[in-house]
Amino acid sequence: MKKSIVRTVSTTAVFSTLFAGPALADTYKVQKGDNLSKIASKYKTSVNEIKAQNGLKSDLIFENQILQISTGPATTTVEAVQQDTYTVVSGDALIKIANRYNITVAELQQWNNLTSTLIYVGQQLKVSPATSITVTAPQPNIPAPSTTVPTTPAATGEYTIKSGDTLSKIAVQFGMSVSQLKSLNNLLSDLIYAGKTLKVSGEQQNTPAPPAVTTPAAPAQPSSGTGEYIIKSGDTLGKIAMQYQMTVQNLKALNNLTSDMIYVGQKLNVTGQATTTAPAPGTVVDSSNVVTVAKSLMGIPYVWGGSSLSGFDCSGFIYYVANKTGTKIGRYSAAGFYDRSYYVDNPKPGDLVFFQNTYKQGISHMGIYLGGDQFIHADETHGIMISNLKSTYYTAHFAAFKRFY
Asked: Which residue in 63, 179, 253, 337 has a CA-CA distance of 20 to 30 Å to 142?
């Protein structure tokens, strides 16, 4: 039975009244050379209080204008601490949640006082830093302005997706968050297609795209020194960190990175000596061979827990193909394989494709990407078969494209 759930983020705000009192008002006629700061200083009040009391939208005032001036306590000031939260579901991991909200695992652990990466279903996690909001309302009998922070800005334009685009890349380009972009376009997953039009908010940043650079990586430095690495197409922070025997956290700290976003041609500082990634003699890692072996299994029936030619389930199919084509890996569930692979923005034939909330919550199904929006997988009814990512069902349950470490 196929089920789906909707993951939600709630916003928690804690309020505390800092000051309240009856108002003592006076009037003031603006003189030549006056400004709000000067008047506020004269009456020992604030610019914001003068603007609020007179309904001013800006700091602009003019000569002979009559202003209402509060000469005593005239406002209630409320301070709110706001922080987004997320409820953990089956199949979640800290790295997955961090990537979803464009934050780091270290930040998740810090905001939630976690001493390990262990989380459990139903746990409430803070997924944004605490933000202090001060709201000032006139007294008396005038309600304070709403403290609800809009999560979705009003749409101001459209953007046509180009090859190589991702939601994260587009969001940064228009000064939005990924969650705002998805909410504005009613997207249930991160899957997008070249040529599709998205609603966007904000002004597009006129930052030229970095030129493609195919220069090979700089020679490895001694393990005690710091070297430089030039990012190539297909690189990720996880892949580079493994190559130089570093952690992603150390790599980000060394380069003052606040997210996992990198681009071709960017230079990164690295430590340690690059390890060779050449396969052992006789080992086959060609992605075309992955596709060939996968397709050779077409028609083999679906068997729950199966990982042999007698029958496969989705993860057993991946286990069999991976080990036949040079990737030595144990037998895991779809969620287990998900945690042993890294994200790719531009999938290639032979990469992994994951789905969530199918017959259970969390990562629950997977297959092998063939290109052209097609993937091969173990279907519960038809066995090993090819399906289309653009079908309504798989679009709704798409989770990510990934690749084995």
From this structure: 63
Give the whole-angstrom CA distance, residue 251 versus residue 342: 16
Catalytic hit among 377, 397, 402, 403: 377
Walk me through the domains of the chain, giving residue ranges and CATH numbers: 9-15+78-138 (3.10.350.10), 24-72 (3.10.350.10), 157-200 (3.10.350.10), 210-278 (3.10.350.10), 287-404 (3.90.1720.10)
**Digit-coded pLDDT (tens) for 182-206:** 888 888 777 777 778 888 876 665 5
- Per the structure block, which two tokens stand in for 165? 């685009």
Which of 365, 397, 402, 403 does the annotation list as catalytic? 365
Of the candidates 48, 53, 63, 61, the residue with the CA atom closest to the CA atom of residue 26: 53
What is the pTM for the complete model shown?
A: 0.35
Sign of the C-alpha dihedral, residues 120, 105, 165, 229?
negative
Q: What is the layout of strands, in order, in the sheet containing 363-371? A: 341-343, 398-404, 352-356, 363-371, 374-379, 383-388
How confident is the model over 345-383, as pLDDT tens digits? 889 999 999 999 998 899 999 999 999 999 999 999 899
Amino acid at 207: T
Average pLDDT, the chain: 76
Half-sphere exposure of 383 (CA within 13 A, CB side): 16
The SS3 call for residue 33 is coil
Q: Choosing from 314, 318, 352, 368, which is the catalytic residue?
A: 314
- Please give the full DSSP string across 85-141, using - where no structure is assigned: EEE--TT--HHHHHHHTT--HHHHHHHTT-SSS---TT-EEE-S--EEEEEEEETTT
Question: Is 397 a known active-site residue?
Answer: no
Q: Which long-range CB contacts under 8 A does 201-208 form with residues at least 24 apart?
A: 201/153, 201/154, 201/155, 201/156, 201/157, 201/174, 201/176, 202/153, 202/156, 202/174, 202/175, 202/176, 203/174, 203/175, 204/157, 204/159, 204/173, 204/174, 205/172, 205/173, 205/174, 205/175, 207/173
